[in-house]
Specification:
This is DoxX family protein. With about 120 residues, the protein is mainly α. About 75% of the residues lie in helices and about 0% in strands. It is built from 6 helices and no strands.
Length: about 120
């Protein structure tokens, strides 16, 4: 399921990049579109890695790191959307704490005993 979530997000970064461009923190060097492409490619690569038993642990740990790295974009989105109608502002605000269970999910998937039948 985590691979599906990442794969979908990765595809969306390329299919509909403008919303992702808009939440790239301005403090990052370069063009927002470049960061959108880099993060989309990373999500696609990690999704593939999660599907492969040999690379699952490393990909899951890297997924946790990526989710932490993109957290500032969720914070920026929450700030930028604070004046939008309530449902949209609420969705943007909810993304900030929602990152925590996603990181924990990835860390759980990175555990050595995942998929081994132990534990």
């Amino acid at each position: 399921m985590l691979a599906g979530l990442l794969g979908t997000a990765g595809v969306l970064h390329f299919a509909v990049p403008r919303p992702f461009d808009a939440i790239v923190p301005r403090s990052l060097p370069g063009r927002p579109r470049d960061w959108t492409r880099i993060s989309g490619a990373a999500e696609l690569a990690l999704a593939a890695g999660l599907l492969t038993p040999r690379t699952r642990r490393a990909s899951a740990a890297a997924t946790a790191a990526l989710l932490v790295a993109v957290w500032p974009a969720n914070v920026k989105m929450a700030r930028d959307w604070s004046r939008r109608p309530a449902p949209w502002a609420g969705i943007a605000r909810a993304r900030v704490p929602a990152q925590v269970p996603l990181v924990l999910w990835a860390l759980h998937a990175a555990r050595p005993d995942r998929g081994s039948g132990r534990g």
